[in-house]
Design a protein that fits this description.
By secondary structure, the protein is α+β, with helices and mostly antiparallel strands. The chain contains ten helices and 15 strands. Bound molecules: adenosine-5'-diphosphate (ADP) and magnesium ion. Adenosine-5'-diphosphate binds near residues 111 and 146.
């Protein structure tokens, strides 16, 4: 929304509030939106997308709407030398990961972006990374806000699930099995490597940090099988603890059952930080619980997934999370990332 100092209200994008680019092209806020963020819809339920005060959506009967929002701040969530296409991709990926955790089918996103200046090459790359992932999951970008200031990207994403089938954190019960998808700790190690110049040149871990793959398909398939689910964004222990608290149960897990990449395994052995992978964060894997009677179905399902799925423990009647490593209790200093701790 333009302010007094940015007085252009012309939604055609060609008047006073203009920015120039290398090619001499002059675009207003609305010109930028039209050029980089306005694309054709992929859903017949979209009545109005970019270009009005609100987006208007038809929701099918018997479906529930699930919504989530996440902000990425330069210097907090990504470094100033991030590749813009990776940033666009990751900004959407973290929101799709929340939808995956709830078993939602992604549909729509809105984007609030704050830019220090207009850099057309940057915007071209950012939007191409964003739309690359949006295309994979048929997500329409249906609106947003574009402002000037320190670089910040906020994406709100929404999806649908049949009535009553959304996966929540509060359904874990004593005896349920605890699983985690994929390999955790890779993104955390890539971050450590960047911050401390550790020279971990394993391209896979850097890809895991820069372009996490939201486990959307797994989330959909876990509907009606999992009793609780969460995506691992702040560290496995911290996020599993959210399931335990919501469900008012305890759990025991065995770290040797986790599938870890060679790089993370070596880093843990080298530093003696055996809790590194489970506290590192930025994994965007799913941690879920399953009643024992569904174990065979999970085994069958997970064999089709292009990533591992590890059975790491079980829910118990205690009120704590017990962490074992090869049968020995492991003392944990902190469970994961928090902004205000
Ligand atoms: P309003 O003043 O009603 O909030 P704006 O004038 O800020 O709307 O934006 C004009 C239109 O462009 C709206 O439909 C808005 O949702 C959309 N829009 C603004 N920024 C973006 C963006 N970064 N990506 C996609 N759509 C955007
Ligand atoms: Mg308005």
């Amino acid at each position: 929304m333009p302010t007094d100092t940015q007085p252009n209200n012309d939604k055609t994008g060609v008047t006073t509030n203009t920015e120039s680019c290398g090619s001499g092209l002059q675009l207003s806020e609305f010109g930028l939106i039209g050029r980089y963020f306005n694309r054709a819809s992929q859903h017949k339920g979209l009545i109005k997308g970019v270009g009005d005060d609100c987006a208007v959506i038809n929701i099918e009967p018997h479906m529930q709407l699930l919504m989530t929002v996440d902000t990425l701040v330069e210097g907090v969530h990504f470094s100033p030398d991030v590749q813009p296409d990776d940033l666009g991709y990751k900004a959407l990926a973290v929101s799709l990961s929340d939808l995956a955790a709830c078993g939602a089918e992604p549909r729509y996103a809105t984007l609030a972006i704050t830019l220090p200046q207009v850099d057309h090459d940057w915007l071209q790359m950012f939007s191409s990374g964003l739309f690359e992932l949006a295309g994979q999951y048929n997500v329409d970008l249906i609106g947003g806000d574009t402002t000037r200031g320190p670089l910040t990207v906020t994406i709100q994403a929404s999806g649908v699930a049949p009535h009553g089938q959304a996966l929540l954190r509060n359904g874990a019960r004593e005896g349920d099995l605890i699983y985690v998808t994929g390999q955790i700790g890779d993104a955390g190690l890539a971050l450590q490597s960047n911050l401390n110049q550790l020279n971990y040149n394993d391209v896979t871990i850097h890809k895991r940090l820069n372009r996490p793959e939201p486990r959307v398909q797994a989330g959909l398939e876990l509907r009606q099988l999992a009793s609780a689910c969460i995506d691992v964004s702040d560290g496995l222990l911290a996020d599993l603890a959210h399931i335990l608290k919501s469900s008012q149960v305890g759990a025991g897990i065995e770290l040797s059952r986790l599938d870890l990449s060679e790089s993370v395994r070596r880093y843990q052995e080298h530093t003696g930080r055996l809790d590194f992978a489970v506290t590192a964060g930025d994994d965007y894997e799913l941690c879920f619980t399953v009643p024992p009677e569904h174990q065979n179905e999970i085994d069958k399902l997970s064999r089709q997934w292009p990533f591992h799925c590890s059975l790491i423990g079980a829910i118990d009647h205690s009120d704590t999370l017990t962490v074992l490593n090869n049968g020995d209790p492991l003392e944990i200093r902190h469970q994961g990332f928090q902004h205000f701790s």
